[in-house]
Amino acid sequence: FSAKVAKALGAVPVAMGQGGTYEALQKGVVEATFSPIEVLKGWKQAEVIKYTIECYSIGYTSAFYVLMNKKKWDSLPKDVQKVFDEVSAEWIAKHGEAWDSSDREGRKFTLSLGNKIIPLSKKESARWAKAVQPVIDGYIKKVESKGLPGKKYVKAIKKLIKKCAKK
Question: In terms of CB atoms within 10 Å, which of 13, 146, 148, 155 comes out highest?
Fold first, then answer.
């Protein structure tokens, strides 16, 4: 999905894990990365990234989740499944808080090095959102072809992005 978004914005996407991104940026193999701001400190990318564009109109394009094989899940006793569900619900909020804290640290770190964080203008943000809309539409179509409410979820995510961007 991230590659499709990059391409829609006029970039040439290169698949790469965070572990190789620092060196690729340092050597000029790549010129930019789609990443949360926490990588500026956590992965020390602020040492090689001098400008960060802050854009909430397209959101972060990757998600993190933990999966379990359905057969294994079904084999667990109901009380164990309940514990997993309870801990998972609790983990969502804790992980969000930890990520927000890491992002604040990344922001603080990059600014301490004299780097710039550039908020994308409303006009450019709207242009980016329009450019990636066909990618989002493709995602919705793919998800809905599987009987899932893709349009509903995308609408909810956009609403959350808008709400959180105001903070």
Answer: 13
How would DSSP label each residue in 36-99? -TTHHHHT-GGGT--EEEE--SS-----------HHHHHHS-HHHHHHHHHHHHHHHHHHHHHH
Which residue ranges make up each domain of the chain? 2-66+106-165
Residue positions counted in the chain: 167
Residue range 2-66+106-165 in CATH 3.30.70.20: no
Encoded tokens for 91: 């983990």
The whole-model pTM stands at: 0.81
Which amino acid would we find at residue 124?
A: E
Helix axes of 150-165 and 122-144: crossing angle, nearest 10 degrees: 150
What is the 8-class DSSP label of residue 120? P
From the first residue on, what is the mean pLDDT of each consecutive set of 10 residues in the chain (167 residues)? 92 92 97 92 97 82 81 98 93 89 97 97 93 95 96 91 75
Please state, as a whole number, how many other Cβ atoms lie within 10 Å of the Cβ of residue 98: 12
